[in-house]
Amino acid sequence: MPPVVAECAHLDEIREVEPSSQGCYECEQSGGWWVHLRICMTCGHVGCCNASPGKHATAHHETTGHPVVRSYEPGEDWWWCYPESLFFYVDGAPPAPSHGTGN
After folding, report:
1. Helix runs in the chain, H state only
2. pTM exceeding 0.85
3. C or N: which end of the chain has fewer Cβ atoms within 10 Å?
4. What is the signed CA dihedral for 73, 77, 80, 85, rounded to 10 degrees?
5. 82: part of which helix (H) or strand (E)?
């Protein structure tokens, strides 16, 4: 059973967002590469995961304080709250935007 979404105290900072790019924004600018992508649910910044050399999704959180990201990978519906180190799902949320589906 997925974790209960009510445990995240930062849901009020989630917005309808447009992805900043189809790949990691910073890696695209610098010629870097990534493993998986995350999208900031406050502003739409697309950054790479912590398994990627740049760790740009986490760096974006640390710079902006934006608390919640969502997977930007095809078929993945999970969310992550940085301040609470909380992995969760949002019941009834629309499918995640994904670089693999052209959304």
Report:
1. 25-30, 56-64
2. yes
3. N
4. -120
5. none
Buried-state track 56-74, b at ≥16 Cβ within 10 A, e below 16: bbbebbeeeebbbbbbbbe
Q: Once rounded to an integer, what is the mean pLDDT over residues 14-40?
A: 95
Q: Which of 82, 101, 80, 58 is nearest to 2 (CA)?
A: 80
CA distance 85 to 101: 28
Q: What is the pLDDT of residue 1?
A: 45
Quote the tokens at residue 72: 């930007």
- 72 and 39 Cβ atoms separated by less than 8 Å: yes
Cβ-contact 67, 10 below 8 angstroms: yes
Report residue 101 as tokens. Answer: 């589906």
CA distance 2 to 8: 13
